[in-house]
Amino acid sequence: MDINSPFVRETTLDGSSTYKNLEYNETYHSSIGAYTEALYKHVLACKLDELANSSLAETSVEPAILSFPVIRILDVCFGLAYNSGVAIQKIWEINPAQRIEIIGLENDAAIIAELPNIEVPEDYLFIRDSIMKPLAEQAKKLLVASGRGAVHQDDEKVESEVLQPSTIGELNLLTENLNMRILINDARNAVTEIEDDYFDAIFFDPFSPKTCPVLWTEEFIAAVVSKAKPKAYISTYSSARIAKDSFSKAGCELFEGPKLNRRNGGVLARKKSLAVSTLLPKP
Ligand SMILES: C[S@@+](CC[C@H](N)C(=O)[O-])C[C@H]1O[C@@H](n2cnc3c(N)ncnc32)[C@H](O)[C@@H]1O
Prior knowledge:
Elements: E1 7-11, E2 17-21, E3 26-27, H1 34-44, H2 48-59, E4 70-76, H3 82-94, E5 99-106, H4 109-113, H5 125-145, E6 169-174, E7 178-184, H6 187-190, E8 199-204, H7 218-225, E9 228-235, H8 241-249, E10 252-256, E11 267-271, H9 276-279
Parallel strand pairs: 4-5, 4-8, 5-7, 8-9
Antiparallel strand pairs: 1-2, 2-3, 6-7, 9-11, 10-11
Helix pairs in contact: 1-3, 2-3, 3-5, 7-8
């Protein structure tokens, strides 16, 4: 690891790698497993398997995918990309022809540059090497262009007098069935660039409310919620009061996500549908 790098790699209980961020003094995932968390707390919690299945059911009747020509996902705090990566893996296991669009929000290109270095389950290697590696290459170029050195000791380092506090840019991957855009910026700025009522699932995965309170405010969470389609789930791992309050004030009904090794499951949110009475014209 480069001396400038603020993170250290660790192995979680399912064998997948996570990192400890030394600035936040927090790991990117819990010890139960980076891959496991992504699968249960985000991908399955948002019912993306059901969505892919419903799409598939329609394809057997019609040649075109009718209900979900594209599954759209917003990945808030993209980090090591497990949430997006496992979503792609699981959706394509069910329907390899399913088109997927992902917008990722992340302010640290350096963590994305680490993606080829993570240890992952064997059946996830394809995602790491074919999808995440090209994004990592773009992240490295962005870091170099903005005057920040590469982050891994095997990489060619670029000396820089000034370490830029932040790098702004965009990473892109476009294939026949996958369109990924990762906006490298503070998520509070990037979220304003995105269309409302657009996503079928939102993964909300900042560091904890204690260490990263700016991403758990009512204001930011309301902005994120406004991007969800009415039936879309928004997954988090946190059961903190601020998480419950912020999603509730943003007009969501709250559910409990999977507990895994914790006492409480994280907040799982969905926009409240308007009551029929509020839709009727006033007498
Ligand atoms: C818990 S980690 C995300 C883990 C990730 N979802 C994954 O599956 O690997 C939190 C991420 O939030 C990013 N982050 C912190 N503050 C941010 C901000 N203001 N805007 C955007 N991203 C931020 C960190 O760089 C880190 O990658």
